[in-house]
């Protein structure tokens, strides 16, 4: 039965990708990209990678769709006609695809317990993680403890994305806002539904943030979900009201403070005579120290991701309003 589910999902992914290639309506393309991300999340669930599916659904089908719609408001809905020759792009895609297919020939059989990945570090994590880290969710143990350096680097990359967007687009200052009030002012039903939904979304984000050590979740997913709640508020009630609740300047401080909080845990462990991000020194009991360290660094990740996602939305939304008034 599981094989049929895999084939159906992969077939739907392929059909969605093919439809994206031939469509000229960019709005429909964005919607199909959201569907593609949702289908990818279902594939990850079938593969028992629930944490990855959680992230794909929140980022790919959620925030990315909103940001691409904001981009369409700046660039236009219809794809321009291409007057260049199509032979060179077809050649590049064909060669790249052939190289990728050739690379898969050396891949080990799917699901084989003798695959190198199951003989390398996986047994170490499975056998020692309960004793060294003590978290029920082994994915969190790997990402937040064993691979703490990598996760710190990913957080810095997210922070750098906000810097890049602000450098390229910026956020229109409130005193320069002479545009009409945005949002769905006349849609009372939508506003009422948003007022009911937004607190529940924030509550769920907090649950995901502080439940990531017991189940799927953590700072990345919680930050995106919380940002989605405020993005919904901005879309329904207007960008000006959203900025009045959380200002762009405050978000910049939040984005930086999350990275500093993460790195500060590593510096504190070094001050205690240990290595960078050695959570064992945060408490008298090494396992308790692991819990404290993971809780703090996940909070830093959540703060940074939330601030960056909302900052990027502010940048795109403010540019969209500016283009509309012009």
TrEMBL record:
GO terms for cellular component: plasma membrane. It is found in: Cell membrane. It is a multi-pass membrane protein. Coiled coil: none annotated. Residues 115-171 form the MrpA C-terminal/MbhE domain. Residues 12-76 form the MrpA C-terminal/MbhD domain. Its main location: membrane. Residues 189-311 form the Na+/H+ antiporter MnhB subunit-related protein domain. Keywords: Cell membrane, Membrane, Transmembrane, Transmembrane helix. Pfam families: MbhD, MbhE, MnhB. Belongs to the CPA3 antiporters (TC 2.A.63) subunit B family. This is DUF4040 domain-containing protein. It comes from Shewanella gelidii.
């Amino acid at each position: 039965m599981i094989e049929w589910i895999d084939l159906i999902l992969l077939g739907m992914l392929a059909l969605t990708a093919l439809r994206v290639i031939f469509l000229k309506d960019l709005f429909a393309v964005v919607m199909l990209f959201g569907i593609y991300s949702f289908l990818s999340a279902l594939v990850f669930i079938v593969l028992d990678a629930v944490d990855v599916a959680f992230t794909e659904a929140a980022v790919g089908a959620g925030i990315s769709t909103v940001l691409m719609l904001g981009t369409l408001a700046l660039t236009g809905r219809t794809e321009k006609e291409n007057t260049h020759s199509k032979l060179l792009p077809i050649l590049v895609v064909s060669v790249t695809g052939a190289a990728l297919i050739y690379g898969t020939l050396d891949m080990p059989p799917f699901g084989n317990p003798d695959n190198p990945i199951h003989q390398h570090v996986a047994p170490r994590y499975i056998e020692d993680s309960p004793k060294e880290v003590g978290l029920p969710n082994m994915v969190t143990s790997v990402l937040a403890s064993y691979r703490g350096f990598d996760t710190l680097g990913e957080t810095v990359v997210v922070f750098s994305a906000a810097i890049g967007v602000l450098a390229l687009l910026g956020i229109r200052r409130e005193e320069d806002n002479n545009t009409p009030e945005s949002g769905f002012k006349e849609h009372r039903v939508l506003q009422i539904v948003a007022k009911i939904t937004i607190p529940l979304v924030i509550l769920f984000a907090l649950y995901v943030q502080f439940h990531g050590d017991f189940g799927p979740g953590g700072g990345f997913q919680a930050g995106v979900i919380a940002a989605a709640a405020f993005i919904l508020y901005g879309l329904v009630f207007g960008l000006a009201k959203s900025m009045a609740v959380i200002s762009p300047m405050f978000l910049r401080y939040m984005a930086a403070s999350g990275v500093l909080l993460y790195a500060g845990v590593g510096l504190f462990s070094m001050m205690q005579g240990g290595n960078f991000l050695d959570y064992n020194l945060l408490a008298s009991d090494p396992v308790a120290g692991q819990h404290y360290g993971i809780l703090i660094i996940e909070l830093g990740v959540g703060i940074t991701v939330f601030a960056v996602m909302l900052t990027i939305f502010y940048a795109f939304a403010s540019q969209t309003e500016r283009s509309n008034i012009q």
